[in-house]
Amino acid sequence: MVAKKTQQRLFAQYFKQSKEFSLRVFGCSMAPLINKGNILIVEKIGQRPLKIGDVVIFPGTEIPFVAHRIIKIKHQDTKNLQYLIKGDNTFSTDGWFAKKDLYAVVKTIIKKHHRAISLRSWQWQCLSFLVLYLPGFRSLLSVLKVVYNHLYDKKKSSTTIRR
Fold first, then answer.
1. Can you list the alpha helix ranges (DSSP code H) found in the chain?
2. Spatial contact of 42 and 20, defined as CB atoms under 8 Å apart
3. Please, what's the b/e burial string for 28-64 (b: 16 or more CB within 10 A of its CB; e: otherwise)?
4. Is the dihedral of CA 127, 104, 27, 89 positive or negative?
5. Rounded distance, CA 73 to CA 160, Å?
6. Could you tell me which of 71, 65, 54 has the C-alpha nearest to residue 24?
7. 12 in Cβ contact with 58 (< 8 Å)
8. Which class for 90: exposed (0-12), middle (13-18), buried (19 or more C-beta within 10 A)?
């Protein structure tokens, strides 16, 4: 088994060399918006300014990398920004990170049933705002997700041809 620090170093090198790549989600810390089994299309951060609501990839404490949301930005001076990061489905923050410590930013989420969601779309931006600033909105999303999956599975099974 490869040590966690070695894995993180290898991921950091890969992220720096690649312009865009995909990762599969294994946890539930960003549920209900990003779920286990979803595919994240991520890109190198580069010179693009990061903003509150962006989902970034960074080194984890227990696992090689984590995808969580920027919830606050601290301006130390014009060049040194610090980003406070937190999972949507977690109680505590991951801490403050400098841009150089972040691996990549999530560009698209491939959801169940191969539905792609661009994190740059106005719909996602509105949803991010609601998740960040309205307490209890995540609970409502969880309920809506269960209803949607139930209705989608029911519709799918009713259109299946039986012999």
1. 4-17, 122-133, 137-158
2. yes
3. ebbbbbbbeebebbbbbbeeeeeeebbbbbbbbeeeb
4. negative
5. 50
6. 65
7. no
8. middle
Q: For residue 24, list its beta bridge partners.
A: 39
Other beta carbons within 10 Å of 10: 12
For residue 79 the two structure tokens come to 């060049």
Radius of gyration, alpha carbons of the chain: 17
For residue 84, which of 105, 106, 99 has the smallest C-alpha distance? 99
Name the token pair of 25: 């989600």
pLDDT at 1 (0 to 100): 47
Q: Residue 149: is its pLDDT beyond 60?
A: yes
pTM, full prediction: 0.74
Structure tokens at 102: 């972040």
Position 96 pLDDT exceeds 90: yes
The CATH code that applies to domain 4-135 is 2.10.109.10
Q: What are residue 89's phi and psi, to 5 degrees? A: -110, 30
Whole-number Å distance between alpha carbons of 159 and 53: 38
What local confidence, expressed as pLDDT, does residue 133 receive? 72
**Residue 83, both tokens:** 């980003």
